[in-house]
């Protein structure tokens, strides 16, 4: 079983799908699966995703094509087949730091959490941070005893 299942809903994202996939291919810990739900794209989103994953020789992925049903439907479909201990939604134009899976692994090695959140940044098309409202928090919750544990993942 994978540590994290990355569910990526995709609708006509041929021009963007490479960035999140490449960021996942650069992970320092490859204990994850990728689930792409092609939500009725009329472009070559699915073909581009398959090509990138095959070039990277990454075989722990699933691509499902469905009729356009919206992002929520695509996410729900991905969750139904996710095998990871944790599931993370990644939009087709997002990307993650290369040590995200490693940091999640370190966090859950110490404790078992039901929910993990982490900080994120807003960037412009060139990758520069924008002056957006601060979203600098990270926490995890243990449902078993309703304990809220604050742990800032330093990036």
Descriptive key words:
single chain; about 160 residues; alpha/beta; Spore Coat Polysaccharide Biosynthesis Protein SpsA, Chain A; 7 strands; about 25% strand
Q: What's the topology here?
A:
Elements (H helix, E strand, L loop, with lengths): L3 E7 L7 H8 L6 E8 L5 H11 L5 E6 L4 H11 L4 E4 L10 H11 L4 E3 L21 E4 L4 E4 L5
- Overall pLDDT score: 85
Query: What's the number of helices?
Result: 4
- How large is the share of residues in beta strands? 15-25%
Number of domains: 2
Q: Can you tell me the CATH architecture of the largest domain?
A: Alpha-Beta Complex
- Apparent shape: globular
Task: Output the CATH homologous superfamily of the largest domain.
Answer: Spore Coat Polysaccharide Biosynthesis Protein SpsA, Chain A
From the alpha carbons, calculate the radius of gyration and give it in angstroms: 16 Å
The fold-level CATH name of the largest domain is Spore Coat Polysaccharide Biosynthesis Protein SpsA, Chain A
Can you tell me the CATH class of the largest domain? Answer: Alpha Beta
